[in-house]
Amino acid sequence: MIVMLPGDGIGPEVIQEARRVLEVVAPDLEYEAARIGGHAIDETGEALPEDTLAACREADAVLLGAVGGPKWSDPRAKVRPEQGLLGLRKALGVYANLRPVRVPEAIADRSPLKRERVVGVDFIVVRELTGGLYFGEPRRRERTDTGERAIDTLVYTDAEIARVVKIACELAVTRRKRVTSVDKANVLESSRLWRETAERVAGEFPDVSLSHQLVDSMAMRILTHAAELDVVVTENLFGDILTDEAAALTGSLGVLPSASVGEGRRGIYEPIHGSAPDIAGRGVANPIGTILSAALMLRWSLERAADAAAIEAAVDRALESGARTRDLGGELGTRQMTERVLAEL
Question: How many other C-beta atoms lie within 10 A of the C-beta of residue 60?
Fold first, then answer.
């Protein structure tokens, strides 16, 4: 069973197109739709209703559109759309965010970088998702004799680090067998623990080559030598920043998928773009990121690698044939772009 969470903004539009593709390559799958985010708040007062959570706990995988929008953007609100996504991640125990970054040669000219910088780029970032600065305690604001100060605490345990590095190494075994671990070990004690733990875990994978890189130099490397990268693993804050930087290599957020996974095979799959409320309902959103997220779901949660590869190859062929939505400099609408992918399938 696949639970579909269309969410807000363009979410329902791109989720619908991903399902059309799934129904071609895997017609035996079953689906259930549920509410999350802003629309769930409007209808139930909760960003993650209990019936949605119950369905996701029973599902083989969850395919998500997007959450949020101006209507629900007040940071002082007690209930916000993003709380639904964070709550779902916590409830399902997903602790690693997988973000493939691949630049098909057909759209290399859309990148803001020179073509020779992005042709051949094909790496995946494994970002730790539930620890670090975003979840550290204590966190507070307080008034002192000299004014206000704010405190956030960066905390990691070796177990939290080990499990995400293990996923990175497992992925590397299926790829080019290289893992780059990103930290700030010259300054942060948590990064020194990260580096030591990464070395210990990687030692269990003799075929995998592990290297370390400081986060600031990694930011430059992504822009200058991204084609050298295979699997990149890093902590929560660094991963958040670096994956957004890496997304720029393609020239559009609309073509990149992601997965959030933990123990076992179940995961949450979603495009990296947001709800894009400015184009919602106009039928112009790029569905590729969601379609490729569905392919990730087939490969990781459902163990249907051949079906996943068929979708990915069809997307590549559609792009090679000149199919483009507006974010890629073309004129195709959401449904038309999916039609081109379906034709290649």
Answer: 15
